[in-house]
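4.2 Preliminary Data

To establish feasibility before requesting continued support, the project team ran the inverse folding procedure on a target of 255 residues. The structure was first converted into the token representation described in Section 3, and no sequence information of any kind was made available to the design step. The complete token record follows.
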């Protein structure tokens, strides 16, 4: 990569770290950038996952106050995320590379749909709470555990909009302040990315220069997202994510 390309990857890491802390979908920024600079799709995905782990840790640290008193939830949901992340990472490394190229455009489009419908989903969750529907089981019950496990599989395999999906699930099944749920979301995404990263480091082909650039950028982005991200216009943020995601789909389909 040229110096300008390395700067672009670093900048994408900052954006992804901030977006992941606020809502999720940061992979839809960094993954297309790595593809554009010539990395093979699986290598780009693996390097991106490893690089975003420090940003996830940074985001969790930024939300540490919201995590107070949620130890039991974190242990329960974290177990599901870890198991799912391991499963997804193994699937990525065992399925043929052609399968990844065929599946990922579908996953990106699904992730973009989640990004677009998230405001409507959030409104539905709010109305559900205001209408006083029957209380959910403590910590969401077994259905939420299985759903978080399935989300972990998706996150370990690819992971774009994993945070959006987690926030939707937590908002529906757990009666709690949304900022506290966002703190949980950050921890779960960190666990999935972290366990997948460990597996990738041991087994997969990694572009360590891309990892370093994304890692440095995502650490900065994680702190910015935790402190100032709520001031960003959500519509503009979603528009950027959708545009970049569509570019990634076109790029994958043309290679």
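Position-by-position output of the design step:
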């Amino acid at each position: 990569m040229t110096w300008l390309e390395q700067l672009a990857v670093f900048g994408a890491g900052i954006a992804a770290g901030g977006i992941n802390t606020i809502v999720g979908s940061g992979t839809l920024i960094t993954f297309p950038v790595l593809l554009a600079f010539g990395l093979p799709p699986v290598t780009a995905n693996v390097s991106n996952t490893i690089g975003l782990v420090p940003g996830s840790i940074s985001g969790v640290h930024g939300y540490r106050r919201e995590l107070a008193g949620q130890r039991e939830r974190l242990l329960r949901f974290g177990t599901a995320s870890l198991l799912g992340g391991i499963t997804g990472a193994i699937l990525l490394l065992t399925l043929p590379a052609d399968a990844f190229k065929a599946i990922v455009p579908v996953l990106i489009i699904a992730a973009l749909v989640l990004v677009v419908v998230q405001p409507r989903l959030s409104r539905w969750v709010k109305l559900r709470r205001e209408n006083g529907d029957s209380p959910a089981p403590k910590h969401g019950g077994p259905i939420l555990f299985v759903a978080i496990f399935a989300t972990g599989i998706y996150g370990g395999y690819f992971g774009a909009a994993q945070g959006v999906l987690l926030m939707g699930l937590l908002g529906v099944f757990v009666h709690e302040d949304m900022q506290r749920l966002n703190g949980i979301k950050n921890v779960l995404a960190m666990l999935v990315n972290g366990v997948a990263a460990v597996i990738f480091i041991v087994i997969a082909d990694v572009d360590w220069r891309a990892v370093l650039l994304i890692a440095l950028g995502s650490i900065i982005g994680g702190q910015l997202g935790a402190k100032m991200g709520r001031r960003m216009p959500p519509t503009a943020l979603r528009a950027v994510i959708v545009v970049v995601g569509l570019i990634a789909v076109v790029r994958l389909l043309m290679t």
